[in-house]
Amino acid sequence: MAMLWLLLACGGVLVLQGLVLGRGSLRKLTYERHFSTETCYVGDRIEMVEVIENGKMFPVPWLRLEAMLPSSLMFKRSRETSISEGNIYQNHTSLFMLRPRTRITRTHQIQCTRRGIYRMDSATMTGGDLFAVYTPSRQITLSKRLVVYPELLGDDRLPSSWKTWQGELAVRRWVVEDPFLITGIREYAAGDPMNRIHWKATARTGELQVHKHGYTADPRVMICLNIEVSEQMWNVVTRPEMVEDALSYAATCAASLIHQGMAAGFTHNASVNPESQAMLRLDPDYGMAHLENLPGGHGRCGHEDADAFHEMLRLEAERERWRRRSCCPWPCSGCGSPRRWPLWLCWRLPSAG
User: Fold this and answer.
1) Dihedral angle of Cα 186, 190, 192, 197, to the nearest 10 degrees
2) Which of 53, 23, 222, 236 is nearest to 133 (CA)?
3) Reduced to 3 DSSP states, what percent helix, strand and coil does the chain have, rounded to the nearest 5?
4) How far apart are CA 341 and CA 311, in angstroms?
5) Is the separation of the CB atoms in 109 and 76 below 8 Å?
6) pLDDT of 104
7) What digits encode the pLDDT tens for the residues 23-64?
8) Sheet holding 220-225, edge to edge
């Protein structure tokens, strides 16, 4: 009889602690998870920060937070986390024990190993009492995003062909002088405007002297990326590692050109998300602000082709024609099949600048 009463007492204690600690374990809990940065490059180390707060006067014996994250985000192992990895996704689990009215901030070290756009839409929160009599759970909406740009390579890793321009080149003499480039002084000649006279040099020499202007060129670079690794490819890229290398080359070349003060743009024939249509083509432009936009176009490229490469080249040549307000012939019956158009267009694009 005494044993029966003991079992009943133990059962009552289990139920009571379950009602007090387990049933309301998720009440007055706030949770936030974010990345330390919204954009980074392949190979960078970033942080994922978790902040959880218990606003009630009862402790939470254990709390488990689970989320499905891409396997290309490599987490540093710790005692408080458990990771089950797969080929595409990994199940990331964090364990907490919360005291009354306590806030805990936990930081996870991450290394980004692959380019892409990674979303962290939701996480599952599960709490419970000491003996897991009650284990309530709920879904938490996060709506966080991380954009990983292609890796920037050193000049020694780039192919030698990237230094060979296709299009207009700088020349020793241009048609019109650049009024903003002063290379020295010279004697006055008939037709020189009065605002070019160098009065100090004129007073020093006793003869009219004018500013001597140089000749400059304003080259523009448009980087066109083709994800069709072969003519037999149909829709989906068969060699994604080749496309990733090409994206790294394109990102490195664009960054190098803009740092040298040139205008660089980027376009590709890959598929993108509907919300990323603005990144399908970026016009050539200057400055650090444009340099920050270019990797966004590189990072949003998919592994499926949206248009044929010869069609993309045709559109680029047409845009250049309208930009220059000049006429240019287009492929006709003598140009052969569309598969031969890229050869014709590669000749046409340099002639259009």
Assistant:
1) 50
2) 23
3) 30, 35, 35
4) 9
5) yes
6) 95
7) 889 999 999 999 999 999 999 999 999 999 999 999 999 999
8) 220-225, 263-268, 281-285
**Count of other CB atoms within 10 angstroms of residue 297:** 26
Give the residue range(s) of CATH 2.60.40.1530 domains in the chain: 27-149
List Cβ neighbours of 25 (8 Å cut-off, separation of 6 or more): 60, 61, 63, 127, 128, 129, 134, 136
Q: For 38, which DSSP code?
A: S
Residues 262, 332: Cα–Cα separation, whole Å: 35
Residue type, 318: E
- Residue ranges in 107-147 assigned as alpha helix (H): none
> Residues 93, 81: contact at Cβ < 8 Å?
yes
- 10-residue mean pLDDT series, the chain (353 residues): 82 85 90 93 94 94 94 89 88 93 95 90 93 91 90 81 60 65 86 90 92 74 83 74 87 85 84 61 80 73 74 84 52 39 47 49
Both tokens of residue 256? Answer: 């190098």
Residue 116 structure tokens: 């892409």
Q: What is the pLDDT of residue 173?
A: 58
Residues 162, 181: Cα–Cα separation, whole Å? 29
Q: Tell me how far apart the terminal alpha carbons of the chain are, to the nearest angstrom.
A: 99
CATH topology of domain 27-149: Immunoglobulin-like (2.60.40)
Nearby residues of 248 by Cβ (< 8 Å), 6 or more positions away? 42, 150, 151, 152, 153
Task: Indicate the SS3 state at residue 197.
Answer: strand
**Distance from C-alpha of 157 to C-alpha of 216, rounded to nearest angstrom:** 31
* Structure token pair of residue 142: 């996060």
The amino acid at 198: H
CB atoms within 10 A of CB 172: 5
State how far the Cα of 74 lies from the Cα of 47, in Å rounded to an integer: 11
C-alpha dihedral sign at 298, 301, 303, 305: negative
Chain centroid to Cα 95, Å, comes to 31
Q: Among residues 183, 77, 70, 50, which one has the least CA distance to residue 116?
A: 70
